[in-house]
Design a protein that fits this description.
Blueprint: E1 2-6, H1 12-25, E2 29-35, E3 38-42, H2 53-61, E4 66-69, H3 72-80, E5 85-86, H4 95-102, E6 112-114, E7 125-130, E8 140-143, H5 144-153, E9 166-169, E10 174-183, E11 186-195, E12 198-199, H6 207-219, E13 225-233, E14 236-243, H7 255-264
Parallel strand pairs: 1-2, 1-4, 4-5
Antiparallel strand pairs: 2-3, 6-9, 7-8, 7-9, 10-11, 10-13, 11-12, 13-14
Helix pairs in contact: 1-7
């Protein structure tokens, strides 16, 4: 398995973790910069654009299986060139699929989806975030009056929110949050990423939490590879969301073990 690694400046630590593991495992890879439809292959030592990038890229993907890691643009690249396995993106990762199939397991099973201008809060506040991993903004709690002001500010034709689908849900009290990296119905590695609303990647999941993750993995028909985010909230385990493994943050996961499993099994 060869790898395409997207250089992402705002997620540089993830890129370096992956790149170091690829080197240590002796896996062939290329580093690319994506800007819309513009693709540049980056020299791995000098960190500058290679001449004849398109030719280098097409020769690289011409034979053998290719796995991609990066941002949302890497999914579009994978689809454009029909890379195999490319990206494990699937409709089974969408909020709508999760609501229809895993509703009782979801932390935010009362969510609604819509454009910014169409959303409304009936209580004092709500949690809001983009449906896709667009990085437009991170999830946040917003008050009803602040949402109205936000809608007024973005009521113009150049708004970045114009066609963005957002999810709105009631605010939940979450104690801890963990991310599990799943491949072929097996948890390969994991990491915490939040404790009492503060970033924390140093926690270890309990046996009960690992058993719950295994139960979800084996109970539902889900993609071959994905990340499963689980929260400990109000005394129970709940699914926060599922995400594409090709674009997900790594936190303190064992990246070497993950890449080894994805590449050689």
């Amino acid at each position: 398995m060869k790898w395409i690694l997207q250089e992402i400046l705002n997620n540089y630590s993830n890129v370096m973790k992956v790149e170091n593991s690829l080197k240590n495992l002796g896996i062939e890879y290329i580093l690319v910069n994506l800007n819309g439809s513009d693709l540049k292959v980056i020299n791995k030592d000098l960190r500058i654009e290679e001449p004849n990038s398109q030719k280098i890229f097409e020769e690289f993907i011409s034979e053998g299986n290719v796995f991609c890691y990066g941002g949302k643009a890497i999914i579009n690249l994978s689809k454009k060139y029909n890379l195999k396995p490319g990206c494990f993106y699937s409709e089974e990762l969408s909020f709508e699929y999760l609501k229809n199939n895993l509703e009782q397991e979801l932390l935010n099973n009362d969510f609604i989806v819509g454009k910014l201008k169409d959303l409304s809060i009936h209580g004092e506040s709500a949690f809001i975030r983009p449906v896709e991993n667009s990085k437009l903004f991170t999830g946040l709690v917003v008050k009803r009056e602040d949402l109205k002001k936000w809608q007024e500010r973005e009521n113009h034709s150049n708004s970045p929110f114009l066609n963005e689908e957002l999810m709105l849900t009631s605010v939940k009290k979450v104690c801890q949050e963990f991310r599990f990296f799943v491949y072929k119905k097996e948890v390969v590695t994991y990491s915490s990423y939040s404790s009492e609303g503060v970033y924390n990647d140093g926690l270890k999941p309990t046996k009960e939490l690992l058993d719950y993750a295994d139960e979800i993995i084996n109970k539902y028909e889900l993609p071959l590879a994905y990340v499963l985010d689980i929260a400990i909230a109000e005394g129970s385990f709940k699914i926060v969301e599922l995400n594409c493994i090709n674009t997900s943050g790594l936190y303190s996961a064992d990246v070497y073990a993950l890449i080894k499993k994805l590449s050689f099994s």
